Amino acid sequence: MAVTAPTATIGTAGSSPGPAGRLATVATVGAVCVAIIAVALLLPAWPAGEDMGSTHYMGLLAANQPWNLLLFMAVPVILAETIAVSELAILFRRPVSPVVAAVNRYAGLVAGFYFLGVLVYLTKHAVVPLTSTGGWRGWADVVAVGFYLLGIVPLFGMSLLETRAVGAGWDDERRLKVHASLVGLFLVVAHIAMIAGMLDPAVAGWDPTHVMDDGSAMEGMTH
């Protein structure tokens, strides 16, 4: 029995949608993205909590326990791990269980849209303020936050595949290969972010005594 990649299709199920169907899919995905971005921009900044002098990546996860850890780490990582494990089951177990296929499909669908909100929120409340005030704590700080936010590329790519906004005309094998590659890419960028984020900025060359007169360089991420 052939293995098919589970996908959530907006529009007509089965065969590849025509131009009108593809346009409707792209329009629907675009509208969802606009709504997510609007909500993320309207959300207020969470209190930053006590500054531990670590990378802002670690400061973000340590503040407002357990909510920051759940929202910014647990949810995206659990979704990605769920996709990875279910993808292995799809690749090696035949026939594919409908439950496994559904879990893989909806985890992939949700992950990208969820992380889009995270990206917009952290860009507004962290990346822009830290860049404008010179608050980055060396290269390790930039790598940690940068690679964390790069997770949008594979995660949102999976959501586009699941909606068939991308790859609507691909066969199931090609879609499955691209989907699995995106899972692997997310795990790579996420682990680079973790490693850099756990590094002491001082060890990486950051000098905490170099602070602007108004102290802005010492301000942490506004979570």
Shape: globular
Low-confidence stretches: 1-14, 212-223
Tally the helices: 7
SSE sequence, one letter per element: HHHHHHH
How many β strands by DSSP?
0
Mean pLDDT: 84
Strand content: under 5%
Radius of gyration: 20 Å
Report the structural category. Answer: mainly alpha
Helix content: 55-70%
Can you give a write-up of this model?
65% of the residues lie in helices and 0% in strands. The protein is an all-alpha fold. The protein has a domain at 54-205. Helix 1 (19-42) crosses helix 4 (98-133), helix 4 (98-133) packs across helix 6 (152-163) and helix 6 (152-163) packs antiparallel against helix 7. The relative contact order is 0.18. The model is unreliable at 1-14 and 212-223 (pLDDT under 50).
Summarize the structure.
With 223 residues, the chain is mostly helical. It has helices at residues 19-42, 56-62, 67-92, 98-133, 138-149, 152-163, 172-198.
Write the layout of secondary structure elements.
Blueprint (H helix, E strand, L loop, with lengths): L18 H24 L13 H7 L4 H26 L5 H36 L4 H12 L2 H12 L8 H27 L25
Helix pairs in contact: 1-4, 3-4, 3-7, 4-6, 5-7, 6-7
